[in-house]
Amino acid sequence: MPEQDRLTLYNLHGCPYCALVRLRLGELGLSYTLREQPAARSERREVLEVSGQPTVPVLVISRAEQPDEILDDEIKILRYLDERYQPRALPQDGEPWGKADDRALRSAAENLGDVAQQLEELAQGAAASGDADRANILRAAAGHAALAEGWTSRQVEQL
């Protein structure tokens, strides 16, 4: 594996695209600095200064004596990570998880909670518009996401 770059990820809690990037960073065992951004795009001054846009995720790659490289799209970021870093082998039975795996699992638990909440909000909107079938499907999906979040949270507690 090449020497690790200094990585800074501009992130929005609950953003599924950011979650993909965080999970890949965890899978690859890479350390990074997380820079949380406000939910309102108009308040995302920090990421706007860095990338020229208010959207996330944005990954800044810093290397000694070289200008920073800025990737402003999850597909570009994932492609860069896959090309630059080879995926590491999964832990064998009984082998402890690394810190990056812990962080990825914690992030997954948080994101599942957000997904459950978003699905429930969509269900409420569908019910309010009179689409009972859609509301029921969305409520069931929200329930499954909440169950998955609960299971994942229990796994995190055991780390």
What is the percentage of strand-forming residues? 5-15%
Radius of gyration: 18 Å
Q: What oligomerization state is this entry in?
A: single chain
N-to-C span: 27 Å
Number of domains: 2
Q: Please give the count of helices.
A: 5
What average pLDDT do the residues reach?
Answer: 84
The fold-level CATH name of the largest domain is Glutaredoxin
Shape call: globular
The CATH class label of the largest domain is: Alpha Beta
SSE ordering: EHEHEEHHH
> CATH homologous superfamily of the largest domain, by name?
Glutaredoxin
Neighbour order of strands in the largest sheet: 2-1-3-4
SSE order and pairing:
Elements: E1 6-11, H1 16-27, E2 33-36, H2 45-51, E3 58-62, E4 69-71, H3 74-84, H4 99-128, H5 132-157
Parallel strand pairs: 1-2
Antiparallel strand pairs: 1-3, 3-4
Helix pairs in contact: 1-3, 1-4, 4-5
Can you walk me through this structure?
The protein has 159 residues and is of the alpha+beta class. It folds into two domains: 6-84, Glutaredoxin (3-Layer(aba) Sandwich), CATH 3.40.30.10; 99-157. 54% of the residues lie in helices and 11% in strands. It is built from five helices and four strands; from the N terminus they run βαβαββααα. The chain has a four-stranded mixed beta sheet with strand order 2-1-3-4, sandwiched between helices. Helix 1 (16-27) runs antiparallel to helix 4 (99-128) and helix 4 (99-128) runs antiparallel to helix 5.
Key terms for this structure?
globular; 5 helices; four-stranded mixed sheet; alpha+beta; Glutaredoxin; 159 residues; 2 domains
